[in-house]
Write a structure and sequence with these properties.
It contains 11 helices and 10 strands. The chain folds into 2 domains: 1-61, no CATH class; 69-316, Vaccinia Virus protein VP39 (Rossmann fold), CATH 3.40.50.150. The two termini are 39 Å apart. It has helices spanning 15-23, 32-39, 44-51, 81-85, 119-136, 157-167, 229-235, 248-251, 259-269, 285-292, 304-316, and strands at residues 8-9, 57-58, 75-78, 93-98, 137-146, 171-179, 205-212, 239-241, 275-278, 296-301. The chain binds S-adenosylmethionine.
């Protein structure tokens, strides 16, 4: 596990401060006044080093020989992810994108406990899956997780899962605020109407937390980058307005990703030909978009029915060929 790996902290190079100032170009999406205020911090890089954040941490560790994933690549596997993951080799996956069951009481196929178990059992199970996820990720590999807190139980699931992943040694990279604009939740239950005694807070958004293993940087070949300049400029702004998936009824799944969310995560955080894993693949949004964008994929779900849907979806998905040059 990563905890046992040795981190090296690179000393920041002094000339970087100057280099950054020369390379600075105003970004139309940024509030320039804010940036200028930030840049007034003197010796910023040295101070970052004193604070000891994770920006300069690098783990140099790669498998002795390239991992052969041919047995696993481009497959949907129907089983418990904890046991399947145990079979996947160390340091073999470039990016994990997932959304586990939320313990909300949702009606998933083949879930006899009806998505409602004691919170401590729920977190213990997730942690066993995360241990395997961290092990199979390559150094520099990314872990993107979307998870909804159960506000009505007052359980901050996204914070608890983030803590689990940090404790397993992953580095936090950032978070995407996924604005779904689903205002239909707005005017129903108020808690205590017009009284401070017990008002309910309403949310039209979710988070996607982004972690990485060993280094914030992920190396890859420049001819395997498929994000365009306009997409990059927009998507590094971490508030993404994307409507919820509208075809959940058609797939018979109650909690699917919209394809646009996965498209952005894959283009922003991975390269073509990378291996993408979703250990809770459901109706297969992650694997379908991975195929479309010329990545390899592994999808695991415990439900036969969802796995069949994910397979059908893959059959109908073709690899996208870009008509335009990347700019
Ligand atoms: C929130 S859904 C993921 C939906 C998926 N992102 C999509 O776009 O369809 C969680 C999934 O986890 C699956 N699941 C629950 N327990 C599991 C386990 N132990 N191993 C593998 N999959 C599991 C459920 O069947 C469900 O499809």
């Amino acid at each position: 596990m990563l905890k046992t790996m040795k981190y090296k902290t690179r000393k920041p190079k002094k000339h970087l401060v100057k280099e950054e100032a020369v390379q600075f170009k105003p970004n139309p999406y940024l509030d320039v006044r804010l940036l200028q205020r930030e840049r007034k911090v003197k010796n910023r890089i040295e101070k970052e080093f004193i604070r000891g954040g994770t920006k300069y941490q690098v783990v140099h560790h790669s498998p002795d020989k390239p991992v052969d994933l041919s047995k696993w690549s481009n497959r949907i596997i129907c089983s418990d992810s904890e046991s399947v993951l145990k079979e996947i080799p160390n340091d073999s996956i470039d990016i994990i994108i997932t959304s586990p069951p939320y313990n909300f009481g949702l009606d998933y196929d083949s879930d006899h406990k009806n998505d409602a178990v004691k919170w401590e059992d729920y977190f213990a199970k997730l942690n066993r899956v995360w241990i395997e996820c961290v092990r199979v990720l390559k150094i520099g590999g990314r872990f993107c997780i979307n998870i909804q807190p159960l506000f009505s139980d007052y359980i901050p699931t996204h914070h608890m899962v983030s803590k689990q992943l940090l404790d397993l040694g992953l580095l936090w990279k950032g978070e995407i605020l996924w604005e779904k604009n689903n205002y239909n939740c707005k005017y129903t239950a108020w808690g205590s109407w017009c009284s401070p005694s017990m008002p309910y807070l309403k949310y039209t958004w979710e988070f996607v937390e982004i972690f990485c293993k060993g280094s914030h940087k992920k190396f890859g070949s420049s001819n395997k980058i498929d994000i365009r300049g306009d997409e990059f400029k927009k998507w590094v702004y971490a508030k993404w307005v994307i409507a919820p998936e509208r075809n959940m009824k058609e797939f018979g799944h109650p909690a699917m990703f919209p394809e646009e969310l996965i498209t952005r995560l894959l283009k922003l955080f991975s390269y073509q030909d990378d291996v993408v894993l979703d250990p809770f693949n459901g109706a297969g949004t992650t694997t379908a978009v991975a195929k479309k964008l010329s990545r390899k994929y592994i999808g695991i779900d415990i439900s036969d029915e969802y796995c069949k849907k994910a397979e059908d979806r893959l059959k109908k998905t073709s690899v996208e060929t870009s008509l335009f040059q990347r700019v």
